[in-house]
Design brief:
heterodimer; A: 566 residues; alpha/beta; Rossmann fold; 4 domains; eight-stranded mixed beta sheet; two-stranded antiparallel ribbon; 9% strand; B: 439 residues; Arc Repressor Mutant, subunit A; five-stranded mixed beta sheet; 15 helices; 13 strands
Amino acid sequence: MADLPPPVQGPTAKEKKYDRQLRLWGATGQMALENAHILLVNSGPGVVGLETLKNLVLPGVGQFTIQDSAVVSEADLGVSFFVEEEDLGRFRAEATCNRLKELNPDVQGHFVAEPVESFLTQPDSLKPYTLILVAAPIRPDILSKLSAHADASLVPLFYFHSVGFYSHFSIHLPPAYPIVETHPDIETTSDLRLLKPWKELADFAADKTKGLDAMAAEDHGHVPYIALLLHYIEEWKQSRDGKPPSSYKDKTTFRDEVIAKAARTNNAEGGEENFDEAVAAVLKSLNPPEPNGAVKDIFKTKECLALSADSASFWVIAHAIGQFYTKHGVLPVPGSVPDMKARSADYIQLQNVYKSKARKDVEEVVESVRSLERSLNRSTPIEEKDIEAFCKNAAHIKLVRGRPFHVVQAGETIKWGDRAKSIAQTLTFPGSLIPLYIAFLAWDEFAATHDKDALGGAPKVAGEGDSEVDTDNEKVTGIALKTLNDLVKEASASIEENELSTIKEQTGEFAQELVRAGGAELHNISSLTGGLISQEIIKVITEQYIPVDNTCIFDGVKSKTEVLRV
Amino acid sequence: MVDQVSEICGSMEGLTLRRRKYLDKFLTREGPFTDPDSFMPGEPVIESLSRTKVLVIGAGGLGCEILKNLALSGFKDIHVIDMDTIDVSNLNRQFLFRHADVGKYKAEVAAKFVEKRVKGVKITPYCGKIQDKDEEYYMQFALIVCGLDSIEARRWINAMLVGMVDESNPDSMKPMVDGGTEGFKGQARVILPSMTSCFECQLDMHAPRAAVPLCTLATIPRQPQHCIEWAHIIAWEEERKEITLDTDDPEHITWLYQKALKRAHEFNIPGVTYSMTQGVVKNIIPAIASTNAIIAAAVCNEAFKIATNTNPFLGFPGTNNYMMYTGDDSIYTYTFEHEKKPDCPVCSTDAVARPLTVDGNSTLQDFLDSLAERPEAQLKKPAIRTEAKSLYYQFPPGLEEQTRPNLAKKLSELVENGEEVAITDPAFPLQFKYKLIFK
C-alpha cells in the first residue's frame, strides 16, 4: 500500500485560472494580492489609472476603489476602453468601476463620485486603502495631503503622468521597504562554498574521487563536477602552501592546465561532460562566499541593530543572520545545487550534503531568533518557514529606502537635496531623460498656476486650446529652464557651456512636445504606463521582485525608459 | 430630405470629432520631432489613418491588447487571425474573454467585443492558421502587427513578408511590428522587410533551451523535471502508444504525473508536482497582464507612428529597431539597432554559405539533431542535400526511406571537407547554406 502514489489533487478552479501568474509569485504572492485594496484618485482623460486597474483586476486583486468626479464624455469614448456609449452623462467613477468589475467576478470594485477635495475632508477617508494611485493633473495641496498620509501611515503612494508620447510615475514607499524574495537570476544564486567546504562536503569529494586516475571510463565520466573541483583544488593547494587558486591568472591556469588536461579524450566523444562542466564553473564558482556590500549594509542599519518588541520580523531575522555572519564570516548556505552530469544516487547524496548543511544553518539562525524574541518580549514567534526562506535568499535580500517625490508648489523652487549632485551628473549623459522629468515638473507648475475656470477648482493644463499653444510653450519651457538652472545651482555642478546648451535645447523640445498634447492621453502610452505601474504595484504588494526606486520615465518617441531616484 | 441627411452627417462628424478630441491634438499639431516632409497634419493624415488596413496576428495575451490599442488609436479597418480557442487559463490576462467564452474561437470573440466597445471600428476575424493564407491575402494590408507566442509562426510570416517585396512596387513592402513576452520580460521590434534586419536575422535573440540528453532521462535522472520528461517521452510511448497524448486532457496529465512521481520515488528525487508536470509537458511560459500590456502598447505605439508620422518610429533604416524590456529587477529597457545579417537565409539577396566546423566522425543524424539547438537555425524537421545528391529528406515517404540509411553514416562518408550543403525545413519557406569544414 505504501508504494502507491498519493491520490492526485488536481488543480482547483482558481489555480487553473491563475496558473500562468502563480508560476511567478506563488500562493503567498497571490494571497497578498487578494488582501490588497487599491484607491485610484483619477483626473484628466484618466486612462492610465484604468489600464493599471485592468492589469490588477485580471490577476485577482482583492478590492479597488475609483474616486473620479468627472462625467463620461464623448472624448472618453475615444480614448478609454472602460466606458461605453450608454455611459455618456453618467459618473465616470461608476461607469469605469462597473466595466472593470466585469473582468473578474472574484474582485470587488467601489467608486466615489464626489470631488477629491470633499472626499478627503471626511475623517478616515483613506483608511481602507493599502495602496493609493494618483493621476496628474492634481492640485498641489491635494497631492501634499496624500503624500503626508503616505508618510504617516506607510501606505505606498504612486503619482503618474501620461501626456502625449511621454509618461512618468513616481513611487513613495515607506522609509524602510525590505524584500526577501527578490527572485534573482538562477545563474547568480548558486553558492557552492568550493573554497570553504565544510567537513561533510570535503568528505563527499574525497570519497567520490578516490582512485580517480585509475577509474573505469564510465565511473570517471560520472564524477560530479563539484567533487572534481574540490579534488583538484586540494591538489593545487598542496603544491602552493595551502593556497587555493584565487587570482584571475591562477584560476585560468587552474582551469586550462589542471582541469581541462585531466579530462580523458581517448573516447568516442573526445572528452567528458563532467569535466566540461567543471571547466565552465571555475571562474564563477571559485569565489570566496562574501556577501555583497548592499547586503552587509543591511546588517548595519539602525532598524537592524536597534530591535524592539514591534520591529518587523524582517529585522529580527536580519539581526540574527547578521550575528551568524559575524560569527562564521559567511552567510547561511542556501542549499541548492545546480544540475550536473552524475549518477542519480551520487547527485542525490550531494544534494543532501548541501541540504543538511543548509538545515543546520537555519537551525542556528532560528535559535538566535528565538533568543532575540525572548529578550525583546515579542508575543508571537516568527514562523520557521519565513526564517528558512530568508536564509535561503540571504545573499540577495534588498532594502529600498522609500522617500517622498517632488510635489510642485506654485512659485516654489524645486529642492533636490541629497540627490542634486547625482542627478546633475546624470543629466550630462547622452540620451538622459532627466530633461524630460524636468519638463514634467514644469508641466505640473503650469497646472498649479492655471485654473480651468474662475472657481479655482480643476487645474488647467498647458496647450489645451489651439490658440494658446505658442504662449503655453513659452511658459512651460521657461519654467523648465529655470528648474534646470536651479538644479545645476543647487548641485554646484560645473557643466560645460556647450553641454549645458544641448541639455537646455532638449529640455525645451520635451516641454514643447508636452504642450503639443494639450493634456491629451494617447491610449497606447497610457496603456503601456498602466502596464508598468501595475507591475510595480504587484511587486510592492507581494513583496517580491525589486520595485523601481523611485521614478520611471517613458519616452514614446524613442521607445525607451529611464529610472532615476529623486 | 437632403437637409436632413446633411444634418445627420454633420452631427455624425461632430460626434467623431468630439471622440477624436485627444487623438486630433497629435493629428493636427506639429511637434519638435515631426518630419515636415512625411507628416501631413490635419485632414490628410486623419483620412489616411482611417483607411489604413492593418492585420493583427494572434488574439491571445498580446492580441487582445493590440486590438484594443489599435481601435483606440484611430485605426478603423482591422483584421485578426488566430487558430486557438479560449482556455480557462487565458482569463488572467486575455481581458476580452469571459468564463462563458471558454471553448470559443479567440479571434471571433475578441473581434466582436472590441467592435461593440469602440464604435466605428470594423474588425474581421479569421479563425485558422496564418499558413492558410497566401501572398494575395497579405498584400491587401498596409501593416502587420504580430502578438504571437510561437517562434515558428513568426519565422513563417517574416519569410512570407520578405518574399513579397518587389523592388519595383513600394507598396509590396509591409512593415511588420512584432512583440513577445515571457514573465516579466519582453521585446518589441519593427521590421521593414528587405530593408532592415528581419526576424530570421534576429533569431539568435531567442536561444532554444538545451534539451536533456535521452540517456539522462532513461538511466540517470537527477531532477524532478527529468522524471516528468521520462514519463512524457519514454513511458507514454511504451505503455500507451495507441493513445495520442493530449496535454489538455487532465486524465493524461494525471497519468504522466503519477508515472513521474513513482520514478522520482525510486530514485529519491523530491519535488515532482502536478503543476510542474503540466509546466514541463506543455512547455508553459509564465504570462501576466502587465507585461502583455507594456509590450502590446509599445508595438501599437510604433504602428501608430508608422501609419501617421506623428513622431519618428523605430525601424527606420539606420536607426534603432528593437526594444528589449526587463521588469523583474526595477525597470530596464535597451533600445538599439539590430543589424541585418549579410548571410541571412531569408532576407539576404546573395546569401553565401556560412562556414560551419563539424566533426567528420559524427553521424548525419547527430548533425541534423544539432540543428534544432543551433540558435540561428532551430530546425526541427530538416532536409539536407548537397549540390550533387539528396542526403536526407523527411518527405515524401519514398524519399525518406531511400535516404534513411544515410542517417547512420559519418559526415565524412557523405560529403567532402569544405563542401556546401543546403538545408530546408517544411515549416519555413527558407533555405540554409552551410560549408562543412571538418575539425
